[in-house]
Amino acid sequence: MLRLSRRRLLAGAAALAPLAVLRHGRAQSTDPFTLGIASGAPRPDRVVLWTRLAPQPLEGGGMPDRPVPVEWELAEEAHFARIVRRGTFQALPAQGHTVHAEPAGLEPGRTYWYRFRAMGAESPVGRTRTAAADGTALDRFRFAFASCQMYEHGYFSAYRHMAKDDLDLVVHLGDYIYEMSWGRRHVRRHNGAIPTDLWEFRDRWALYKGDPDLRAAHESAPWVAIWDDHEVANDYTGDRSPRTDDPAQFLRIRAAAYQAYWEHMPLPMAAAPEGAALRIYDRYRFGDMLDLTLLDDRQYRSHPACGAGRAGAPHTADCEERRDPGRTMLGAEQERWFAEQMGQARGRWTVIAQQTLMAELDRKAGDGKGYWMDGWDGNAASRDRLLAAIAERRPSNPVVISGDVHAFWVADLKRDFADPSSPTIASEIVGTSITSQGPSEAAIRTGLAENPHIRYARGDKRGYVRMTLEKQAARADLLAVDDPFEPNSEVRPLAAFAIENGRPGAVPA
Ligand code: FE
Ligand code: CA
To answer: With 80 as the cut, is the pLDDT of residue 287 above it?
Structure first.
């Protein structure tokens, strides 16, 4: 009864109130849509619509301790003259009053618009898109990928630019939030210390989600995402963090962090975490053009090899342990699943989205080898198995996309990195960070000089990568922010690479 009369009230208010009044309402502290809206997990028949009610975003949200109904609408055009689905989602206190509505029965490969209404206010309008049906012929698919958006290191101009790119999809590769402060020059500050419980993680997410450029990028296209370490704790591996020696304590932190991650991403209700476990590895398919595999190399990873594990060391001397076949980045179950996916891939392009630089990288200038153990080089046998699975199952045009290292890299992924004549199994493109500060010029120089399979490296620029997939070629535009310390910075092309159909290895476009 109460719910019905409330809905009627809301509907009446919306019909009578001019838009300016609603807009004005949004600017006040009672506006529940301070964290924006988002959509994601696009399938041919459904997509997830997300928001979180948070009138006081940095103080726990400011919501009452009871369920609150949120109306959502999905339309075929931006003015909502033809609404095709609507519903009411009960936003629950236990889920931070987040909304994960999932309208189904939609048309494949179609653009839709959506909005929410709650607590007498109306949200902005978002644009989203379902995936093209399996096998449908597509001429083109465009997506952007991004990673590493340290809030204190700069403004999110890259996202303001990305929001105008008219994309089919945005892929986030992790470090969406940073739990810790670090770096040289801070243009804005984190709220509070390193989060360890759910309320502290929610407040950190709210700080990031409040950024207007990031909100615009979410409003512009559906997203899929994977995490890296900073959504939980720097350089964590599976059930261990360099910050605590007590695994039980760390798993409590991980459970809170995973819950906050799920709450703030456009993920389905069915994907909600169970305790400290949250499966994020997945596969998406977009017509006959793209098979997109998302990997999780944090949750199931082996502990650091070769006595590494103290954060901040630039590299560790080579050692036998990093090649131990018992070590893994993905865990046995995900490795098996990955090989299966490579056998079932049907798209023209097989994009493997994962956290960190996959190409081997000798980081020691001159004689001898040095590796960074918090990545694939610290788990070399796991990388060998992944590349072997690609080589054996032969999916069409494998391209690995990566984040984490705060620099652009373009690399050939070799069957045997020690032998430059060995076959290139896949192309790798590493996007730089949205804002997080990058490596030194010396580190980039060494990377290029010591590793013949590296085709390009640039560490001094922040930005993202826009990928255009067509039948005959894929194009990667490396886009760079002029000045991350400037809130209205321009973004412009830095370099472009092409991968030809049937020929692994990116070349300058
Ligand atoms: Fe990062
Ligand atoms: Ca060397």
So the answer is: yes
